[in-house]
Specification:
By secondary structure, this protein is an alpha/beta fold. It has 10 helices and 13 strands. Helix content is 35%, strand content 22%. Strand 9, helix 5 and strand 10 form a beta-alpha-beta unit.
Length: 236
Amino acid sequence: MFPRIRFIATVDFPPFSFLDQTSRLAGFNIDLARAICTELEVLARCQIQALPWNELPDALKTGQAEAIISGIAMTPESAAEYRFTRTYLTLPARFAARRDSAGAETSAQTLSQKRVGVIDGTAHEAMLRDWFPDIKPVTFSRHEWMLNALKTESIDAVFGDGLQLSFWLASQSAETCCGFLDGPYISQAHLGEGLAIAVSPRNARLAVAFDHALAALNRNGRFAELYLRWFPNGLF
């Protein structure tokens, strides 16, 4: 059906695509690309290559690759440049709070009039202000400063990317201090549609094949296996 499928990704997008301790390309997106090729029965003709972010578009345009699997945002501008597959993973926003302060309460309503940390100038700040007008945002310029403020109880909670918060909550630096509070929250207006694979507009047939493969991976449980392998603490 397809003589060759060449995926391209970056090495600075963990846990989606990065170089592991043996300098091999690894990550959720890498395993997903292989699973798609297996589902399409083209694994022997499937290649996955790492390139710098700014070289991805030209590699697709010049035919050096057939697909970008590296988190290109789906916007009206990018939709004119690429053909996107169905969304394979949505990245939600989440609240995190100290376990000893949250108690048995799990609703974001308990944060009314309380101080909630958020990174300044981000989509998460705009979402926090739009969706939760009763909360008092406290902006930070660095993620680690915001999380330290939560640990030291300088703020009551934080609001941000569910992926980053998930890995921090499970890390040693969090010291089991905190947990997710309510959510997840999904907003296409603020956070986009999620992750999808980009192909050339002239290669619509490949996008359709990827969509069928992604649907099959969801049905047979393979996608869930990959999700739990790379996100054991969950995003939702």
